[in-house]
Write a sequence for this structure.
């Protein structure tokens, strides 16, 4: 991210999916089944071990968890 007055700002986007799953009180197994994900794939999203986000997966997660991408993707 760039600020024309200060130069580069040190910020990153992270995936806050694990927390959202806990808040929604749903099991990871149900998320995997409903969103057509392998457990390893879901765990990689939960642990921020993905370098590229698949928008189809993000859409399925949002639909199942009744949320928006802003609830999953956070800026820090």
């Amino acid at each position: 991210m760039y600020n024309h007055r200060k130069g580069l700002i040190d910020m990153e986007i992270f995936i806050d999916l694990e927390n959202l799953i806990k808040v929604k009180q749903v099991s990871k197994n149900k998320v995997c089944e409903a969103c057509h994900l392998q457990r390893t794939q879901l765990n990689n999203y939960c642990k921020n071990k993905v370098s590229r986000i698949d928008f189809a997966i993000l859409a399925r997660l949002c639909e199942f968890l009744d949320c928006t991408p802003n609830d999953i993707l956070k800026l820090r």
